[in-house]
Each structure stands twice: as C-alpha cells, then as structure tokens.
Amino acid sequence: MRPKISESLLVCCKLYISEARNSFVIESIERAAKQNNVIVVNKFVDEIYNRTSYTLVAHSSTNSLLDTIPLQNAVTDMVKTALDMIDLRLHEGTHPRLGVVDHILFHPLGTSTLDKAAELCKSIAANIGRLLEVPIYLYGAAHSDGRTLDSIRRDLGYFQPNSDGRQWIGDPNTDISFVKPDEGPLEVDPSKGLITIGASPWVGSCNVPIHSEDIELVKNIARSISEKGGGLPSVQAIGVEHAKGSCEVACYLLDLDRVRAGQVQTEVERVCSELGVTVGKVYLTDFLPEEITNLYAKAIESCFAERI
Ligand SMILES: *[C@@H]1O[C@H](CO)[C@@H](O)[C@H](O)[C@H]1NC(C)=O
C-alpha cells in the first residue's frame, strides 16, 4: 500500500525571485521545477513589488534525504534559470532585495525535523554557490551560530532602499567586504546579487494595506507593531510603498501559535486609528502548513491518476 503523503512529508521550500512583470521568465522558472518532476504548490506574483515566490514540497516514504534529489535539482535549476534570465541591474521594485534570487527558505513539514531541513538546505546552498557562482549567506538552523535572517539582512543593508527612500532600483551595491559569504565567490556580480538561504520552523507572512503615501509614517507603524518595537511577540514588520499613494506593513509571523494574521490586523488598526489613518484588509502571501500539505497531497493524487 502506498503510504499516506501526509505521513511522509519532509520539507517545504520557498524561493523568492526579483521579477514579476515578465510572465515568460516567471513561467520558465516554474518549468525548471516541473522538468524535475517537482510540483509547484503555490506561486505568488506581486507585480508592484516585482517579486514572485514559489512554494515546493518534498516527501519521502523512507524519511531519507536521498528521496529529495528531484527537489535539490529543481531548486538548483530554478536558480540557474532565474540568474540566466534576470539582470538585477535592471530590476525595480519597492520591496527590499539583495539578489535576483533574493531568498530561499526551508521549513520542516509533518513529523520531519528542523535538522533534516537544515541538512537539505546546506547541501543545496553548497551546490548553488559552487555551480552558479553566487555568494550565499546561510541563516537559522543552517548557520553554525544560528544567525537570524533579520540580522544578516541588516548587516548587508537590506533595509535601506537605494533610491529616494522608498524604491529599489538596479544594483544595490552591497558591501560584503566585512561579512564573508558561507558559500560561493567572495565578490558580488552586480547582475546577480547574492542569496540568503536558511532553515527555520514555519514562518507565516502577511501584508496589511495602509491608506497613506507617507512612507516614513508607515515605517513607524511597522516598527510599533513589531516585537522589536515593543508590539506583538514573534512579529517582524517593515513598511513598504505598494502602489502609488498606498503602502503596506509587510510582516513575518515567526510563531503562528502565538500570533496569527488576525491579531496583526487588530493591532495595526488600533495604532492607525490613533493616527487617523485607514487600513485595508490583511492578506496572507502564502498558505498555512496544513493547507500546503493538503494541496500537495491533492497534486500528487492527480499526477498519479494521470499516469494510470
Ligand atoms: C522587474 O524586474 C525585472 C527583472 O529584475 C526587470 O527587468 C524589469 O525591468 C522590472 N520591471 C519594472 C517595470 O521595473
């Protein structure tokens, strides 16, 4: 009997790419996954940020990382396709980014462990750094000291837009001379940028639209709802311009057992009502782990059905 997918899940992998407006490029990257027989469970294309995320899943009935070879090849091929087709010097968007492939993240799923996700993450990072010659910064369980994503991004200047305080245009000119990459070359090719790659427990992400064009005000709102600014525990938040005349508070929810999107909405509304600013409805930029598991199981069933 075939084991139930939900019992043999290993990891979820998310890739964030600095492009959203060229559908040929977006589809070519997706095809690189499919050619390795890996299912893209979710794709979130944000045209305003000019940023796309892909969510992949690996499962194994033997609980062995050997079964993740298709996923490993898929991730490497997706990164290669993105680096070949996208030139960071031409990229524009209001979401921060340091590379064509800005971020790759691994989460354990089901009964799998963080150690397993970290092991897979490190092996993929080493391959990408070596084969594709792009500097790689590890974080979370994949980094020897458990460095956080937030801290490495801060060190690399991620939070400072390189154009008029709200927009990222072209080469971010990242100075990496004082933080050596964990994999890959010691110099940044401005057409590629660099990649942060890590493993962590599940991180939720949600955005709250703010009806104001005052980016400094929105940055303050983000700060005050974040854990760092004395707001909600386990929440990280930044203020970003979204469309012309509107902004968003973009949040990472580091512990969904403590704070979910609904509480973020309530807190943003509370802060904004004091400021006389109106707020839109929070939305998630990805599914929850339970939903990913169900979507994946369904996709596998339908592939199986197609083959017989
Ligand atoms: C979006 O990003 C791509 C690739 O980075 C870039 O070529 C394109 O010019 C950007 N689009 C706009 C409208 O800025």
TrEMBL record:
Alphabetical UniProt keywords: Transferase
PANTHER family with a match to the protein in the record: FORMIMINOTRANSFERASE N-TERMINAL SUBDOMAIN-CONTAINING PROTEIN, FORMIMINOTRANSFERASE-CYCLODEAMINASE
InterPro entries: Formiminotransferase_C, Formiminotransferase_C_sf, Formiminotransferase_N, Formiminotransferase_N_sf, FormiminoTrfase_cat_dom_sf, FTCD
Gene3D superfamilies: Formiminotransferase, C-terminal subdomain, Formiminotransferase, N-terminal subdomain
Protein name, per record: glutamate formimidoyltransferase
Annotated GO MF terms: folic acid binding; glutamate formimidoyltransferase activity
EC number(s) reported in the record: 2.1.2.5
Annotated source species: Rhynchospora tenuis
Domain Formiminotransferase C-terminal subdomain residue range list: 207-296
Domain Formiminotransferase N-terminal subdomain: 9-201
Pfam families recorded: FTCD_N
